[in-house]
């Protein structure tokens, strides 16, 4: 789907996007004419009052731009709750949810834990969007007023964490850096990944006669470029590449071996979040659920344009510069990087499996079996939702669950069958 064929936004929505573009353009000008893509993505999604997640538009569900598992079915949160019981029992009766969206997952988890007689003492939510935080507070106040005093919103990660930490589709929403592993031999001007794609390279930066500074290179001699955002002469946002200067990004890009002229994402922010959580977790487990794969598949030679994806009114496309603020921008998750960041921070790897196996291991089918198939009105929709959550053709295989933890004795029930750790 090309951005040209997407539904046309209302004049108000276009004016909103124009305000965000003006803010981004000002920041580009204040930073010497270029911003890393990660900063652009951060502003496009989270600029206060203007970003996609921070402005008031409806995002989740049928009327929004995409649908997540908790929005699709309460079976998701109810099943996840069973895994949380085990983690809380083995550590502390606390849950921390990162990026709680509409609040639906918190609602389903708390409702189920109440039924199971296993309510947490505290259910904390760390949400970067003030608008979503307000919606979450409203939902809990309306639907679970008697439990509202257990739910707390945090402004930052606590210094120490004990219990269960969960994040559904949060890692994919964190800003990524874009890297271009360019062939050691410079391509012709019409070559792939250069001007021919509407991507400009900083003039002079690839001039081989220039003695300094040396170009950053991979082990295979490829020139390592960071793709970012600049402005055309007429003030439009455009892509621009320049040699990587950020040492952390350079080190990460040098660890990855890909063919020439390869473009992909590096999830430094997601890795940083896992590191911070790992440093704070005293006892318990982190559970992250998202779409993605291990590094071999993520950086597969054929995936040479990366995984960056935008969602606008249920259309998926790859033009991240299309009307900033009106569309979601996401990248798949490199679960190998998540596991490595956790283990480097001293956590134990506890499991990696598909969403289908995780939910089945935690008893999703038992929840369906609580309803008689004779009660077609109740049974049929739930059965359809279970199918969407677990079918390999829908969310069952692309979505994975990873667990990292500290000081837990028993294996987690969600990973009993369907181990995929060989793919990390
Ligand atoms: C794709 S939505 C998923 C929402 C919800 N978990 C669900 O499954 O429906 C991503 C969520 O993560 C939040 N978020 C993004 N970056 C975050 C961060 N650094 N800390 C906490 N929340 C964050 C967003 O505001 C949003 O609520």
Structure description:
The protein is of the alpha/beta class and 424 residues long. 33% of the residues lie in helices and 22% in strands. The protein has helices at residues 11-30, 37-46, 69-72, 74-90, 104-115, 130-143, 247-254, 268-280, 295-298, 335-344, 355-361, 364-369, 376-390, and strands at 35-36, 94-98, 122-126, 151-154, 161-168, 177-182, 199-201, 223-231, 237-243, 262-266, 281-293, 309-312, 315-317, 328-330, 333-334, 348-354, 399-406. The strands form 3 sheets. Strands 2, 3, 4, 5, 11, 15, 16 and 17 form an 8-stranded mixed sheet that branches. Strands 1, 6, 7, 8, 9 and 10 form a 6-stranded mixed sheet that branches. β3, α6 and β4 form a beta-alpha-beta unit. α8 (268-280) runs parallel beside α10. The protein is globular. The model is unreliable at 188-196 and 203-207 (pLDDT under 50). Residues 53, 60, 68, 70-71, 98-101, 105, 126-129, 132, 168-170, 173-174 line the site of S-adenosylmethionine (SAM).
List keywords for this structure.
single chain; 424 residues; alpha/beta; Rossmann fold; 2 domains; binds S-adenosylmethionine
Question: How would you concisely characterize the structure shown here?
Answer:
By secondary structure, the protein is α/β, with parallel strands linked by helices. It is 33% helix and 22% strand. The chain has two domains: 261 residues, 3-Layer(aba) Sandwich (Rossmann fold), CATH 3.40.50.12710; 87 residues, no CATH class.
């Amino acid at each position: 789907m090309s951005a040209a064929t997407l539904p046309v936004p209302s004049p108000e929505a276009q004016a909103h996007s124009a305000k965000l573009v003006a803010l981004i353009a000002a920041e580009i000008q204040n930073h010497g004419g270029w911003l890393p893509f990660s900063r652009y993505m951060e502003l496009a999604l989270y600029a206060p009052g203007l970003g996609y997640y921070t402005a008031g538009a409806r995002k989740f569900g049928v009327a929004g731009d995409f649908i997540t598992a908790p929005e699709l079915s309460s079976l998701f949160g109810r099943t996840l709750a069973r895994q949380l019981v085990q983690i809380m029992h083995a550590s502390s009766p606390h849950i921390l949810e990162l990026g709680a969206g509409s609040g639906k997952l918190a609602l389903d988890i708390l409702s189920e834990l109440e039924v199971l007689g296993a309510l947490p003492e505290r259910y904390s939510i760390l949400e970067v969007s003030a608008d979503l935080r307000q919606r979450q507070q409203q939902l809990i106040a309306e639907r679970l007023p008697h439990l509202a005093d257990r739910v707390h919103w945090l402004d930052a990660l606590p210094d120490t964490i004990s219990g269960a930490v969960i994040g559904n589709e949060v890692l994919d929403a964190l800003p990524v850096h874009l890297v271009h592993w360019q062939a050691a031999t410079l391509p012709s001007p019409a070559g792939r990944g250069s001007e021919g794609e509407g991507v400009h390279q900083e003039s002079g930066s690839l001039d081989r006669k220039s003695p300094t500074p040396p170009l950053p290179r991979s082990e295979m001699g490829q020139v390592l470029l960071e793709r970012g955002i600049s402005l055309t002469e007429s003030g439009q946002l455009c892509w621009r590449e320049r040699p990587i200067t950020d040492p952390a990004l350079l080190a990460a890009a040098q660890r990855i071996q890909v063919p020439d002229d390869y473009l992909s994402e590096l999830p430094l922010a997601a890795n940083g979040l896992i590191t911070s959580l790992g440093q704070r977790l005293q006892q318990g487990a982190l559970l992250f659920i998202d779409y993605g794969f291990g590094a071999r598949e993520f950086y597969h030679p054929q995936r040479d344009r990366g995984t960056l994806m935008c969602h606008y009114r249920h259309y998926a496309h790859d033009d991240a510069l299309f009307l900033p603020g009106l569309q979601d921008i996401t990248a798949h998750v490199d679960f190998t990087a998540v596991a490595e960041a956790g283990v480097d921070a001293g956590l134990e790897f506890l499991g990696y499996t598909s969403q289908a196996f995780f939910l089945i291991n935690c008893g999703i089918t038992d929840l369906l079996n609580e309803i008689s198939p004779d009660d077609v009105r109740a049974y049929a929709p739930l059965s359809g939702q279970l199918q969407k959550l677990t079918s390999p053709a829908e969310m069952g295989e692309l979505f994975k669950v990873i667990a990292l933890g500290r000081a837990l004795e028993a294996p987690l029930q969600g990973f009993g069958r369907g181990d995929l750790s060989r793919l990390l």
